[in-house]
Amino acid sequence: MLRSGAPTFVPGNATVTRPFANDWPDGYDRVVLPRVDSTMAEAARRAPDLRGPTWVMALEQTDARGRRGRTWVGPSGNFAATLVTRPSLGAEQAALRSFVAALALYDAFVAVTGRTDPFSLKWPNDVLLNGGKVAGILLESAAQGGQVSFLSIGIGVNLADAPNPSRLEQGAVRPVSLLGETGAAVTPEEFLHALAPAYARQEAQLTTFGFAPIREAWLARAARIGETVVARMASGEVSGIFETIDATGNIVLATPNGKRSIAAADIFF
């Protein structure tokens, strides 16, 4: 279980703590809520008053959402949290945090299971377990004067249960749960305890050394490199062999018409 430090303040029914330095990343705050509409919405409400990067976690969400406005279904016992920061970065640099978050999730899964073999990363922002989707990442930001004024990194993890696959669009990766696939029973609090320091380490890597080592580490864990995938965009679909991601995080496909670099799409296997 998480050990917590002295509470800094308690707004309403939230418990806010600064955990001890030896079990929580320095400079990061944490808010744990029993129930909220969505952690992304709560993060946006709190962003103007932040003193530093803050994890907003909820044990229950009533109106969660995923990428492109899709509903995110989170049964009881699953993990739902948003890391909200005020990074003063350009949009392209802020977008690289999806790779930071993916690597942090991978590290957290390894920490709570002791296994690396069943986990892989799906571009642009999913984590797979035995080929099924166990976690997703959603980035939202607000800009001012050409800079991102705050960045929210929403993370949902199927710790205890997976949503019904009938809700998914045709061809989407099947949802799985950590408990169902590995037998590891992990509470949301325990998972946050593993994820927060993992994210802090990966963020420090990006800040210190740039995107190159993050890109290399992500590619080493990527799913379906060298295989044919379909990139589905609002303007249509592109099929090609997944070769790499480029220096800006775009997926690069080898197609019959040459290489194609794609910034945003849903990938289907």
Automatic annotation (TrEMBL):
GO terms for cellular component: cytoplasm. It catalyses: biotin + L-lysyl-[protein] + ATP = N(6)-biotinyl-L-lysyl-[protein] + AMP + diphosphate + H(+). PANTHER family: BIOTIN PROTEIN LIGASE, BIOTIN--PROTEIN LIGASE. Its EC number is 6.3.4.15. The keyword Ligase applies. InterPro entries: aa-tRNA-synth_II/BPL/LPL, Biotin_CoA_COase_ligase, BPL_C, BPL_LPL_catalytic. Residues 15-207 form the BPL/LPL catalytic domain. SUPFAM superfamilies: Class II aaRS and biotin synthetases (SSF55681). It is an enzyme of class 6 (ligase). This is biotin--[biotin carboxyl-carrier protein] ligase. Keywords: Biotin, Ligase. The keyword Endoplasmic reticulum does not apply. GO terms for molecular function: biotin--[biotin carboxyl-carrier protein] ligase activity.
